[in-house]
Every structure is written in structure tokens, then in C-alpha cells.
Amino acid sequence: MGPDFFSINGAELYDLLHDTEADIGNVLNFILPDWVPHPAALRLRQRRDRIGEIFRERLEEREAHPDEWEKAQDYISYTLKDSATAHLDHLYAAHHTLLMFAAHTSTVASISWTILELLKDPKRMDFLRQDLSHHKDMQSSHYLQACLKETGRLYSGISMLRLARQAINLPKTNITVPQGSV
User: Fold this and answer.
1) Which of 52, 74, 113, 167 is least buried, going by the fewest C-beta atoms within 10 A?
2) Quick check: 129 pLDDT over 60?
3) pLDDT > 70: what percent of the chain?
4) Tens of pLDDT along 8-64?
């Protein structure tokens, strides 16, 4: 984003992202329409609105002091200067929320699951250590790339979705998940 976002709102954005991640997987988000006001959906809307406010505040501040941002090299500055994206500034909050969420969840999850799998197999861990010692750049390790790809195959986010084999009533609600629902 930019140094202004991190210095002024970085901690709050991190908390909003973390709390959003906690609520986004709520089963009710998968089975109820977006307009049903269940607690997780209400919290998600509040966070979305706050992230929008943060972006409006930062963009207004940049607009009020354009000289300070003329030579900035951050992603927001780039998209504001690019004629293909400058007019989309009203979508920046949603765009950056998706970028933050995707980068955080996919990177952290991939690293964590890869380490877990390597810890289960000390021989593979040792082989990876030896392989990495021969590479100045970790990205050139074909073995590391293979480990990461295997982690992606084993722990794909899609596997978290389930198909209801039979209709089921959600406890303490009047909601029935129909057979065949995802």
C-alpha cells in the first residue's frame, strides 16, 4: 500500500484482517444469502466499512498533499497514476483487502503446512537442508519448489468446503441445510 497506511493504520488493518479471517469461514456465510444479518456477517460488514473509511482517509490526505506523493513508489501511488486504474479509486479498499487476505492466508498457510510436513519426515527435512546449502537463491531449489507444490496439493483451501450428503438442521436455529449444498 504505502508508508502512510502502515504508519497510521497498519496495526488496525492487521487486526481487521485477522478478525475478518476468523469470521469469513463461518458456516453461515456459506449457507445463508449475503443479506441475512447473522452475527458473523454483521461483523464482516462493519470491518469492510472501516477498511473503506481508512482508504478514504488516506486517499483524501494524499489528495490534499500531492507534492509529498509525487515520487512515491508504493502500489497505491502507482495505481493512482496509472490511467487504467486511477478512476477506480472507489474500489481500492476492496481490492487491497483481497490482496492482503490472499497474501496473508496463502503465504502463512503454505509455510506452516510445509514445515509441518517436513517435521514429520526428518529425512526429507535433512535433504532439503542439504539442497538449500548448495543454492545461493532459495528459489532455485527444485526440491523446495516441489515441497511447496505438494503442500498446495495436500492442503488446498478448496478442501475446506463440504458437500451435505443429507439435509441437516443447524442446532438452535430454524435453518436447514439442504442435501447437496456446499
Assistant:
1) 167
2) yes
3) 95
4) 998 898 889 888 887 887 888 888 887 888 999 999 999 999 999 999 999 999 999
Q: What percent of the chain has pLDDT over 90?
A: 25
Distance CA 10, CA 20 (A): 15
Whose cell is 447437496? That residue is 180
pLDDT > 90? residue 3: no
Candidates 14, 148, 119; CA nearest to 1 is 14
Asked whether 74 and 2 are in contact (CB, 8 A), the reply is: yes
Nearest to 16 by CA among 58, 48, 61: 48
Q: Is the four-CA dihedral 63, 65, 70, 74 of positive or negative sign?
A: negative
C-alpha cell at 44: 464482516
H-helix segments, 3-91? 3-24, 27-31, 39-64, 66-69, 75-81
Beta strands in 22-177 (DSSP E): 168-169, 176-177
Q: 127: how many CB neighbours lie within 10 A of its CB?
A: 14
Cα separation of the two ends of the chain:
35
